[in-house]
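Quick check before the chapter quiz. The format below is the same one you will see on the exam, so make sure you can read both the input and the output lines.
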Amino acid sequence: MGHQQIMLVLLGVLVVGIAIAVGVAMFRGNAIEQGRMALINDMLFIASRAREAYLKPAQLGGAQRNFSNITMRQLSTMAENDNGRYFIEGASTDELIIVGVGRMVAEGDTIRVRMRVNERTNVIEVLH
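Here is the expected output.
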């Protein structure tokens, strides 16, 4: 083979290698984002259940307008699923803090999302 043909083969191998590396990076980034969105979706469901329990009177098994009366068992039958684990980090009369820890490991650490729930809004904070 001539020098020109060898250079074309090397250039082709280099282009294919770069394309594979970019594809793997894009796939990994998308997988991490999907895991984070799955955690947030589960936590939004838990937050709606928390708000429902908050508004219910104690006679009906509710928290009687006090988030500190709410337990994770009231919010979900499973504190763990395929997406991650969920737990109550803190609670006060008018606010509940829920944390979700994902199953996927990203950059040597797990995906973590914190949600602050009050009577009207949810504030989502991505920890990692």
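If your answer matched, good. The chain has one domain: 3-126.
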